[in-house]
Amino acid sequence: MTDLSKITTDGKAFYLAYDQGMEHGPTDFDDENVDPKEILDIALKTKVNAIILQKGIAENYYSGTEYAQKIPLILKLNGKTNLATGEDPYSPQICTVHEALSLGASAVGYTIYVGSKYEPQMFSEFAKIEEEAHSRQIPVIGWMYIGGSGSIGKDPRDLTAYATRLGLEMGADMVKIKYPGNLENLKWAVESAGKVRVVVSGGKMDKVEDFLEMVRIVMKSGATGMAAGRNIWQNENPTEIAKKTKEIIFS
Q1: Chain centroid, CA 58 distance in Å
Q2: Is the pLDDT of residue 26 over 90?
Q3: CB neighbours (10 Å) of residue 126?
Q4: Torsions phi, psi of 44, nearest 5?
Q5: What count of other Cβ atoms lies within 10 Å of the Cβ of residue 45?
Q6: Residue 14: exposed, middle, or buried by beta-carbon count in 10 A (0-12, 13-18, 19+)?
Q7: What would the pLDDT profile of 27-64 be if each residue is shown by its tens digit?
Q8: Total domains, the chain
Q9: Which residue among 15, 62, 113, 145 is the active-site one?
């Protein structure tokens, strides 16, 4: 497997995610966090393992700056809007591994919607990304998200474990999944991933206490850590909530 030491600490990780602008539009932002520099400053101050960005923000705010010298970058290679209709999502590749490396990326990520009828296209794109990235010794993270007509009515526990197993079978170095509801479901997903590391997406929770409890459950499961965004930078005191999150992950 590709070396993950640039984006982990003692086998654990806390990533600050700021790739939501493409997927969600401006609804996530206020006058402060709409500015990417504000988020990069949070990442710098809190010493996260990496920041997750799309290529446009990386090109305009990260590459060639002091941030690039101090914060590892995970560059997302595909994306979509939330405006498209239909049960089956597809997030096409919009950035290459070559571009990612030129922007200073330490790892690349790609979303596969497990259960979508567009799985074949996503599998093909992921396979090419993995081949190119591994030939250059850069880790590949699979965003393995449940979504599509094939997932309707099926058990979230089985689907989440299927998603992490898919990451193992396809050669990902790490998978990023959504929280499957409880500790036992997550444990099975982590076990199903084999040697592939698992990080959990933070989503957006109304109460800080609920978010921190989820972080505790994630670490009890044997997962590697968290990729959190809105729970951090939408908070009134993002550095404080980031500090508490790190304390749980690295304790």
Answers
A1: 16
A2: no
A3: 24
A4: -65, -45
A5: 12
A6: buried
A7: 888 888 899 999 999 999 999 999 999 999 999 999 99
A8: 1
A9: 145
Name, in order, each residue with C-beta under 8 angstroms of 188's C-beta and a sequence gap of 6 or more.
157, 160, 161
- Residue 174 tokens, joined: 């790490």
Claim: this prediction has a pTM higher than 0.90: yes
What does R_g of the chain's alpha carbons equal in angstroms? Answer: 17
At 25, the pLDDT band (50, 70, 90 cuts) reads confident
**Pairwise CA distance, residues 228 & 233, whole Å:** 9
State how far the Cα of 112 lies from the Cα of 92, in Å rounded to an integer: 10
**143: enclosing H helix or E strand:** strand 140-146
Evaluate whether 199 touches 224 at the Cβ level (below 8 Å).
yes
Beta bridge partners of 93: 78
Given 176, 179, 187, 246, which residue is catalytic?
176
Task: Determine the Cα–Cα distance for residues 117 and 136; give it in Å rounded to an integer.
Answer: 31
Q: Which tokens sit at 23? A: 């997927």
Domain span including residue 148? 5-249
The position carrying tokens 């995970």 is 74
**Locus of tokens 């972080």:** 215
CATH code, domain with 72: 3.20.20.70
145 among known catalytic residues: yes
Catalytic: 176?
Answer: yes
- Tokens found for residue 182: 């409880």
The token pair that represents 196 in the structure block: 């592939």
Please tell me the distance from the alpha carbon of residue 208 to that of residue 206, in angstroms, as a whole number. 7
For the chain, the residue count is: 251
Burial class (CB in 10 A: 0-12, 13-18, 19+), 209: exposed
